[in-house]
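Key idea: predict the complex, not the pieces.
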Amino acid sequence: MTPLLEVKNLRKLFPLQTGVFERLGKMRRENGKVIVDVDRVHAVDDVSFSIAEGETLALVGESGCGKSTTGRVILRLLEPTSGQVFFEGQEITNLPDKELAPYRRKMQIIFQEPSRSLNPRDCVGEAIGEPLMVNGIIKNRKDRRQRVEELMEAVGLNPKMYSRFPHKFSGGEKQRIMMARVLSLNPKFIVMDEPTASLDVSLQAQTLNIFKKLQADFGLTYLFISHNLATVKYFCDRIAVMYLGKIVEIGDADQIFLNPIHPYTKALLSALPVAKPGSKRNVIELKGSVGNPVNPKPGCRFAERCPYKVADICRSVTPKLLDIESGHQAACHFPDNDLKVELPEVRLNVKRRIG
Amino acid sequence: MAVDVLELQQKKHWLERLGVDLDSITGRVLLRFLRNRVAVVSACVLLVFYLIAIFAPWIAPYDPIQPHFRNRLEPPSAKFWFGTDPMGRDLFSRIVYGSRVSLTIGLVSTLVSFLFGIPMGLISGYFGGWIDEIIQRAVEFTSAIPSFFLILTLVAIWGNVVDRLWLIVFVTGIVGWVGPARMLRGQVLAVREFEFIESARAIGCSHRRIMFHHIFPNAAYVIIVQATLGTAGAILMATGLSFLGLGIQPPSPEWGALLNAGRNYMQEAPWLTIFPGLLIFITVLAFNFLGDGLRDAFDPRSEQG
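Result:
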């Protein structure tokens, strides 16, 4: 069965803004051609994965590692530098805008900051009904009202709030408005760009539950971008860990949690907070900060901070994703490293699916 | 302070009775504006001036053009409120009719400059890239032209062929597009970064819809401020030209032309310069205060309590 979404060798490089003179200084000749070496940020560098229908894939990593960029490039809100994205077997990376439109409807996005993702001058009804009107699915206001009220009920909003403006709602409610807006197009795939990161903890769980319920009701597939492993464990079937634009480990949620391979994954897991005061355990501390994504050198991107030994090969050869077990891959030259992760016991028997 | 709080409560109460949602953007802007007394007074003054201009034939007691040599250089009195000029015409009536010319120049030239400036600023900020480069170079080119001297030149060339009023209006308007274009571009760049713009793209909005439905209403406030300041500038420019004798020609009344005509009688009939000068002063000042008030009202950082 072809996966719903397949990403192959996706890259997104952002050229750094330079002045004319700087660019002139970087000009050089090669085989008679003039080439300008522009510094480029490698935001997403050779990323491949696939998501099956109905599945939730988590993309985790610290800020600036290219998670959000990956999500945006998949939807072509940003144009990829190279690589391919297949949706339902159709390559969408090179489609012109007109042919892309039907795919856009099936692929949607929810943003991190709900207060920034709704136009403050559109009332809820307009916001939720906009996709319907813009795509010509509904032609008149009366039909719009009816459909919007259905959608509001589906996401647990009171339809009486139809003509209220976004500033009257809480963050969680705004996120549900966004969800209703997106669902109006009957999408199959939704990129969730840290949808709960800016909500209160009490609201996070509630909002996640609504997303789960909607996933079942509408048959949705999620790409869940997050930096919170605890949330991810609860919410996702598979996990991909990103570091500096590359996927360093990917596998089923259980595989990642019970048998992490990559030192970075291990470090992330060891840093999970424990809900037991006074408990001691080894946290794998990472020294320094995330490296510079501008013109990275070959070799492992994590080499500078790796808590395991760093050999010459780490600095010279970029590690490829290697099969560890079925469906579980890691990009490390030393997959049998003996770094130990002490997971809080509670986490080991977390039920993957709720209800 | 207690009086202030009481007044604020009262204003909130009025707005609520008018059906304004005080939590909404418009409601908060309105409230902040109403708390600025100078700006509110300025707005009222300008409103009165424009009403006078519109209803000039009903307000002016005498004909502004027809000379009555029997009433030459009468000082201000109950009969002639602002006195009369050397040809016996009532100055009040001339100022009332003159306001039509001066205020029209201000308003229409601002409209013309916005007609060019708004699309340019929107396109420049929204699309960016080489389109932005070209428009910004055009902005710099236009702002390098001293508009006052450009108009002087054009009046000298075409002054007798085309109606000077419209020549002044259109040239100030066309040269003035850079102000709104630059301001709007800056604001568009800020609004463009909001996720609701990306969301609009994801659901399939056209560029036109994103620009006019999502970006413009959220960026337009800078334009409103610019409009008031621009109008003041245009009025000052037009009166300046007329004062130099290059703008609107006598006998048609225009504030700058009235000022120029009164110059020769400054000793024996000072009212001929005082009243037109005062009106130009008040109008331009009111526009500037209004602009400042609007800018503060739209700026959420100026909120106190």
